[in-house]
Amino acid sequence: MSVTRKGEATPDADPRRWWGLVIIATAQLMVVLDATIVNIALPSAQHDLNMSDGNRQWVITAYTLAFGGLLLLGGRIADLVGRKRTFVTGLIGFAGASALGGAATTSGMLFGARALQGAFAAVLAPSALSLLTTTFTDRKERGKAFGIYGALAGNGAAIGFIVGGLLTEYLNWRWCLYVNVPIAVIAVLGAFALLHDRPGHTGARLDVPGVLLGCGGLVALVHGFSEAEPRGWTDPLVLTLFAAGVLLLTTFVRWQTRAPMPLLPLHILKDRNRAGCCLTMALATIGMFGLFLFMTYYLQVILGYSPVRTGLAFLPLTAAIIIGSTQISARLLQRAAPRALMVPGMVLAAGGMLVLTRMTVHSAYATEILPALLLIGLGMGLTFMPVFATATAGVGPQDSGVTSATVNTSQQVGGSIGTALLNTIATTSSAAYITAHLHTPAQKATVIPAGVVHGYTVAIWWAAGVMLLAGLVAGLMVTAKPPEHGAPAQTPVSESVT
Predict the structure, then answer these.
(1) Per-residue pLDDT of the chain in tens (498 residues, 90 and over written 9)
(2) CATH class of 12-202
(3) What is the DSSP letter of 298?
(4) In three state form, how does the secondary structure of 427-489 look?
């Protein structure tokens, strides 16, 4: 039963629309979950495929880089060929890439499969959000549907840690990828049975030069950071990669001012608040993704946790993010300026990082790790919600999709750069420590673990500095006022929540 508003057609009179929501939310959950499920499996995968410490980050980075770099293009493809067709194509491609990754026999094969997963996720996520919008046209029902969708997506990180731990411990790490296949099959069958499409826009065009320039620049930068670990920061190849990245991204910006259908309409970022939110998000996730990588290895390799116990150890972090976002930020944002939440949020997260810089080979989880994770989680929760709400406020309907994709792109790109940069800092610091302190073979058992933890703490110092920089950016650039008293707070749903 559905209420007709001002003669509006009511496609959501279909009683199966809530089952359609289950299909859409399941697909989105799979995409979000894959950003964390592999973290828990990474130590096992590294051992099986003989990855170096410098290259292991590509398991995470290949996914986030392809996802973030192609997200804007994915939205354009959905506009061009239709949401349902794009949604189903994304699901099938994601399942195929997952199967390829699960069957990987070399590290390069796994990296390639993860990049393919990210590319198909970039197609899948915008079409899922668009289908949700077209399936629920009644205002009240749409609000409820977005709430359910957001809750499932927001819990993706927590679910990923737990499922990743269970699959790795009781089956093996490959099942962290294989598990996507049956989920995708169910979602495809459900999409054909339950979802309705609208024709694509024949006027939409793909900005292929923009994709090549933007993605090429990002790949060059991230590759430069990863090559700095074995070669050194002044190596000619590293400097060439950085120069190429800067040149390609500069050319990308110039092209976007002239492209007939730009991938990233630059007027979106001319607004000071929106630009400040995107930059804050990128800087915040630089530290966040690096933390996931280091803490996974610290808990499993140094403290000897099982994969399941490692997943459970991350739960307080994700719970704190959800509480900070839904119970604190969502309530205070109606009365407080966004930066009044974002700045303290980043300071709290930086404080949690500083606590982690004190960890040693023998740190106790309950007294030395848990308080830091709670501080970081609360800080991130305080920051994420006002970032999305402020970045998408006051945007016209024609720009709402690209604006949401832009914020999510900054999140994924920040994660890619952060994982590569901080992993390089950690591994080079560890190598320097071990070289300086290892004098006899008998010392290996104590010096090597101490060196590894030293590398993590050095990288976490850098992460804390980046978090403080994010707080400074939010304080200086985000000048939006609190909503008018009594006005309903707009809480847009993001396409990906970490």
Answers:
(1) 444 444 444 544 566 777 878 888 888 788 878 877 888 888 899 999 998 887 888 888 888 888 877 887 887 787 777 778 888 999 999 999 999 999 999 999 999 999 999 999 988 887 877 777 677 766 666 666 666 666 666 567 677 888 888 898 888 899 999 999 999 999 999 888 877 766 555 566 778 888 888 888 888 888 888 788 778 888 899 899 999 999 999 999 899 888 887 877 787 788 888 899 989 989 998 888 778 888 888 999 899 999 899 889 988 988 888 888 878 887 887 788 889 999 999 999 999 999 999 999 999 999 999 999 999 999 988 888 788 778 877 766 566 667 777 877 888 888 888 888 888 899 899 999 999 988 888 888 888 999 999 999 999 999 999 999 999 999 999 888 876 544 444 444 444 444
(2) mainly alpha
(3) I
(4) HHHHHHHHHHHCCCHHHHHHHHHHHHHHHHHHHHHHHHHHHHHHHHHHHHHCCCCCCCCCCCC
Contact assessment for residue 2 and residue 12, using Cβ atoms and an 8 Å cutoff: yes
The span from the CA of 25 to the CA of 278, in Å, is 25
Quick one: 435 exposed, middle or buried, by C-beta within 10 A (0-12, 13-18, 19+)?
exposed
Asked if the domains at 12-202 and 265-498 fall in one CATH topology, the answer is: yes
Amino acid at residue number 125 = A
Pairwise CA distance, residues 356 & 287, whole Å: 12
Q: Which is the CATH superfamily of the domain at 265-498?
A: MFS general substrate transporter like domains (1.20.1250.20)
CA nearest neighbour of 404 among 280, 494, 497: 494
Transcribe 18-60 into DSSP letters: HHHHHHHHHHHHHHHHHHHHHHHHHHHHHHHHT--TTTTTHHH
For the chain, which residues make up each domain, given as ranges? 12-202, 207-260, 265-498
Helix (DSSP H) and strand (DSSP E) numbers for the chain: 18, 0
Contact 132, 24 (CB under 8 A): yes
Find the helix packing angle between 83-102 and 58-81, rounded to 10°.
160
Q: Which two tokens stand for residue 240?
A: 């060439």
Q: Tell me the torsion sign for CA atoms 115, 116, 122, 128.
A: negative
Q: Which residue has the tokens 């792109």?
A: 409
